[in-house]
Amino acid sequence: MDPIRNPYAPGAGQRPPELAGRDEQLAAFDVVLERVARGRPERSLVLTGLRGVGKTVLLNALRSSAVRRHWGTGKLEARPDQGLRRPLSSALHQAIRELGHPQEDDVDHVLGVIRSFAQRDAGPNARLREQWNPGIDAPLVKGRADSGDIEIDLVELFTDIGGLAADVGKGVAVFIDEMQDLGPDDVSALCAACHEISQSGLPVIVVGAGLPHLPAVLSASKSYSERLFRYQRIDRLSREAADRALSAPAEDEDACFTEDALGQMYAVTGGYPYFIQAYGKAVWDQAPRSPITAEDVAVAAPEAEEELAVGFFGSRFERATPGERDYLRAMADAAIAIAASGDEELDDIGSVPTSDVATALGKKPQSLSPARDALLKKGLIYSGERGRIAFTVPHFGRYLRDHA
């Protein structure tokens, strides 16, 4: 097959040629946009799921939907080592520019508030980098969103931005990827601001995406967060959607898969969107002609697995210290032991008791707390319920058993 015409795109956050299996989420978000624009009450949205299920891709698709409706939009990626003020200010600056408000004075006022919000943490002797503002020429607006209390400031900032959007009959949507990496104070402030905005009916929403434990992070910050957001779990694709993700791009290039090949592809990918793209690319390059057969899949699978081992799994494994790697391997061994014993079935996320991990390592659970906590912070594992842990990356246990 011609590699130049290969339609599959296994990139981080890169939109696949066919966004299959997400029609329900896209349609629901269109309803949210329309309701908010009309002043109807609506909750902000949180997408959760494992790595590789397409959360970032879907987040970008939702943002595109908002842009098509002429909303102001901005996006940021949360990082554990960075506060919320500066990246959020950049995102909101972009959103204000997209709104196209006709009154320059009103726009400059809100931009001045954004600038004050961004620079609040910079002291009088701060370095130039700490005094940075997101390209805003408007003068600082003192006494607004600059109290130093992130919760008060964010409420004031969202209120001013919501008022500007309401003037032109539009809305503002802030998209936050890796939302679980926000600091506790920033999470609390974000929840409080969303709560205030929803009560006032202003057209501002937050759309977050993060790992499966994100709802627990939000709930620990504000007890009302479970009623504040609409949670959508993004999972692997059904067999029908996975077949469409493979077949539609191939048909656009005058090629196709046999039914057996599609079945084999679903078996090796598990329906995870990133794996579908990775295996699809490898199979296309290896297949001699169309239709692509199950034999072609078998020949190309080792190449796809090797690429995933280096770029998808290996890069994450390398971030762990030797002690943390032992913990990860013990998690994989514990899952195998559970499956082999027959006494307990693995749940759909493959979680294992922390006590089983300690047993596999021959150590007391308390002594493993530092390694577990470090892996949680690095986003390699998560805890869906007390006393159990799971990998944030699908098929990671299999990788550890085969390669690490």
Summarize the structure.
By secondary structure, the chain is an alpha/beta fold. It has 16 helices and eight strands.
Q: Keyphrases for this structure?
A:
alpha/beta, 3 domains, Rossmann fold, metal-binding, Cytochrome c domain-containing protein, Arc Repressor Mutant, subunit A, about 400 residues, 16 helices, 8 strands, metal ion binding, Helicase, Ruva Protein, domain 3
Report Rg.
23 Å
Q: State mean pLDDT (0 to 100 scale).
A: 91
The count of strands amounts to: 8
Which structural class matches the secondary elements?
alpha/beta
Instruction: State which percent range the strand residues make up.
Output: 5-15%
Q: Total domains, how many?
A: 3
The CATH topology of the largest domain? Rossmann fold
Specify the oligomeric state.
Answer: single chain
Low-confidence stretches: none
* Straight-line N-to-C gap: 33 Å
How many helices does DSSP assign? 16
Question: How would you describe this structure to a colleague?
Answer:
The chain has helices at residues 23-37, 55-68, 85-99, 104-119, 150-167, 184-200, 214-221, 225-228, 239-252, 259-269, 273-286, 294-317, 322-341, 354-361, 369-377, 396-403; strands spanning 44-48, 72-77, 172-177, 204-210, 229-233, 352-353, 381-385, 388-391. It is α/β, with parallel strands linked by helices and 404 residues long. Strands 2-3-4-1-5 form a five-stranded parallel sheet, with helices on both faces. The chain has a three-stranded antiparallel sheet with strand order 6-8-7. Strand 3 (172-177), helix 6 (184-200) and strand 4 form a beta-alpha-beta unit. It starts with 22 loop residues before the first helix and ends with a helix. The mean pLDDT is 91.
